[in-house]
Amino acid sequence: MHPQDQEAVRSSLSSHHQGLLPVLEISFRLRPSTRGMRWVHQVNKADYDEAGRLLRIRSYLFDLTRQKQLESSIEATKERLYLALESARIGTWDANNETQELIINARAASMLGYREDEVEHDNHSWMDMVHPHDRVNTDRALQSYRNPGMDVIALEYRIRHKKGHYVWVQSYGRTVERDDSGRPRRIVGTLLDITESKRQESLRNRQRQLLDLLNQAQTSFLLNRNVEDACEALFEPLLRISESTFGFIGIVQYNDKGQPYLMVPTISDLDWRHGKVRNGQYERRAESLQFHRLDNLFGHVVTHNQIVLTNEPGTHHASQGTPEGHPTLRNFLGMPIRFDNKVLGMIALGNRPDGFDEQMVQLLEPLVVTLGTLFHARDQENARVTAEQELLRLATRDALTGLANRRHFFEVAETSLIQTRRYGTPMTVALLDLDHFKHINDTHGHAAGDAVLNAFADVLRESLRDTDTPARVGGEEFAVLLTNTPLSEALIALERIRHTLDETPIQVGDRTIYATVSIGAVQWNANHLDVDGMLAHADAALYAAKRHGRNRVQLYHAELMQMEASAPTPLRAANDAA
């Protein structure tokens, strides 16, 4: 007999002798032999006389070795299963469809933050914890599983944790007992927390969506070179990917004092008030919203070139409340859009149901980098366009007055003449010469002469339409092109120029001087072959205006040419000098 069992057997036999147990059953091991350990089950029956004295003990021995081996194997299997379930963090459940009883083990309960004895053991309580968005599908699957012939069920759904949030679980069940009609009566299954795998799956999906979004933004920008349109195209998808209730994409601009403000071409459809807010915090413009105050949560992103992530905005040191008309912030994520560490704009997102975390920052980082590149490309494009415009201005504008120069005037006039010939639209050309300009220079100095030239340029700009072209074509000589203008209207415009200059005091230091202008004009007709021909006729009319007293408008006509041709040469020379 095995030494560990000897004491128990002696104690049992002693009970017979003492008359305590007339029948006794006991199992014990025999010492290992060549056949291994043997288990024996012994049944003892004691016989006593009338005085209660033991007469004899009858014993029956049974070989339990095989049974014990089976029991040991079952226990080992159960232990391995338990260890496997524990190592895989798999819970188990046992559901009875007739009684609606649901039994879950400690592991399943712990997935939801409970102890095993804290969980209600019925199906209805469990279903009450299922996420509202998953409840219908889960209940429908369970109902269909109760039909005859169903054997295995597989479900994925969200269920409420003790702390209030939801966890994703995966559940497999198999029928182990059926009722008389073949419907599942008892189902046993497993429960696995798949929250992390769902999170990773969601992250991968959002990363794919973000990649599509980046391609979309780049394509939009490359097609029309408009960064505002690119922001508009990616804004709504950005809200979906980030699961945010509202947000905006802002571009940093600078006012006349060099102070930054946010121009927001793309923002959630909120109930913003129209017009300017009294405190100057934001300003509604036709195509955008502008934030001029940056001493707040939004502005902190721009002014400090920092990511702002807070799920308690009211406690953030930069919080100054939200602009009027803006919803209450429950959480906020602001990320600066940078290029070469210079802030060019920002992304702002708010009120995500589960709040913001570093994972969201990492997810959106490629988008922010791409936007920084696009914003920089936009700035470079704007700088290039500005430089080209400046070069064009320098090539086509008079340096002193800012009017078109002689070369540009001829280019515009040649183009207009082509249109006039093709469509028969009226076209008038005028030459304008400041009277006694040499005398002004000699008497008051060249600074005064420049002041008169600039004053006259201002008169031309104020008196003409945007479609007209005034130009400085010589020292004190100017030209004007009036297109699509009947002769009567052209003469009114030229007379307005003459009269305005005549009435305009020109301040030169502490002196005030006045200037006048003589104007010769010609309207196109079929005899004019080119611009030079029209200018020659306008020049003839100008000489006539000079000869007839200056400070007047003279229209060219054929008789005028004959009169000028017969004018004395000394007079023409005098007019030339004036």
General description of the model:
With 578 residues, this protein is an alpha+beta fold. The protein folds into 4 domains: 3-71, PAS domain (Beta-Lactamase); 88-193, Beta-Lactamase, CATH 3.30.450.20; 202-381, GAF domain (Beta-Lactamase); 406-577, 2-Layer Sandwich (Alpha-Beta Plaits). It is 44% helix and 27% strand. The protein has 16 helices and 22 strands. It has helices at 3-17, 65-87, 106-111, 123-129, 132-145, 195-224, 227-242, 297-303, 358-396, 406-423, 437-444, 446-463, 487-502, 531-547, 558-566, 569-577; strands spanning 23-33, 36-48, 54-63, 90-96, 101-104, 152-160, 166-178, 184-193, 246-254, 260-267, 282-284, 289-291, 308-310, 332-339, 342-350, 427-434, 469-472, 477-483, 506-508, 511-513, 517-523, 553-555. It has a 7-stranded antiparallel beta sheet. The chain has a 5-stranded antiparallel beta sheet with strand order 5-4-8-7-6, with helices on both faces. A 5-stranded mixed beta sheet has the order 17-18-16-21-22, sandwiched between helices. Strand 1 (23-33) and strand 2 (36-48) form a beta hairpin. The longest helix has 39 residues, at 358-396. The chain is rod-shaped and about 175 Å long. The N and C termini lie far apart (146 Å). The model is unreliable at 271-286 and 568-576 (pLDDT under 50).
